Amino acid sequence: MRNEYDNETFFEEYGKMSRSRNGLSAAGEWHQLKPLFPSLQGKKILDLGCGYGWHCIFAAEQGATQVLGIDLSKKMIEEAEKRNTKKQIKYRVCGIEEYEYPENMWDCVVSNLALHYIENIEKIFQMVYRTLKPGGVFLFNIEHPVFTAGVGQDWIYTEAGTPKYWPIDNYFIVGERNTHFLGCDIVKQHHTLTQILMGLLNNSFELEAVVEAEPPKEMMNLAGMKDELRRPMMLLVKAKKNVFSKTTLQEKNKL
């Protein structure tokens, strides 16, 4: 997987974003994502693509006894170690696709705005299922397919420079999307809604919540925020590792 986050220009611009400076309270989706978390008291948490470690510190503050945050970016991990440390948190430079996913290890796996960089997302679903304990929760936030299928991931603008509409093309053609973000050329991976949700169901997850992120009312005065109601940008999903084994589920489905 390409790693633009270690690009000096990109990393510097990323650090200027409100969510980078102020953490979860500045994230427009947090008011919807936070209620989806299970109880983390006494639990073991894995954060895939942890960035600055905001969700790691949240887990620790909620009583998690062990938290591991992994990220492909060395710069992100260095920043996480500066900003969000507690004795139960460990950080590791490691790609989501390279992590070993030990069997039945974690109570909750979290991933925030990282899975849209993964080409074979179903393989990650398989590995997350493997590493979760029975009854464990997989909670992730991914760029919405309507957003990743956007042409250049940008609006079509009027002559006055205001957003006119959000163009979508090649929706069912999955794979690479080239876009320009924070002054850099970025490569993301487009996945359809069917791919994401059926990818979970086909790997024995039980869907518990599917939420399209909307900014909170208190952020509506921020520049461009009202336009976020015109198309979804993020998809929040909560899935549970069924207490039955895959073999048991397959046998049950034959009945």
Quick summary:
This protein is α/β, with parallel strands linked by helices. The protein has helices spanning 8-14, 18-22, 30-33, 54-61, 74-83, 121-131, 145-148, 193-201, 246-254, and strands at residues 44-48, 66-71, 89-93, 106-112, 132-143, 156-157, 163-165, 175-181, 184-190, 205-212, 234-241. The model has no long low-confidence stretch (mean pLDDT 91).
Describe this structure in words.
The chain is an alpha/beta fold. It contains 9 helices and 11 strands. It has helices spanning 8-14, 18-22, 30-33, 54-61, 74-83, 121-131, 145-148, 193-201, 246-254; strands at 44-48, 66-71, 89-93, 106-112, 132-143, 156-157, 163-165, 175-181, 184-190, 205-212, 234-241. The strands form 3 sheets. It has a 7-stranded mixed sheet with strand order 3-2-1-4-5-11-10. Strand 6 and strand 7 form a beta hairpin. Helix 6 packs parallel to helix 8. The longest helix has 11 residues, at 121-131. The relative contact order is 0.15.
Number of beta strands = 11
Give the ordered list of helices and strands: HHHEHEHEEHEHEEEEHEEH
Return the average pLDDT rounded to an integer. 91
Total of DSSP H or I helical runs spanning 4+ residues: 9
Large-scale geometry? globular
Low-confidence stretches: none
Biggest sheet, spatial arrangement of strands: 3-2-1-4-5-11-10
Radius of gyration: 18 Å
The separation of the N and C termini measures 41 Å
Give the biggest sheet.
Answer: 7 strands, mixed
| Beta-strand content bin | 25-35%
Structural category: alpha/beta
Helix content: 25-40%
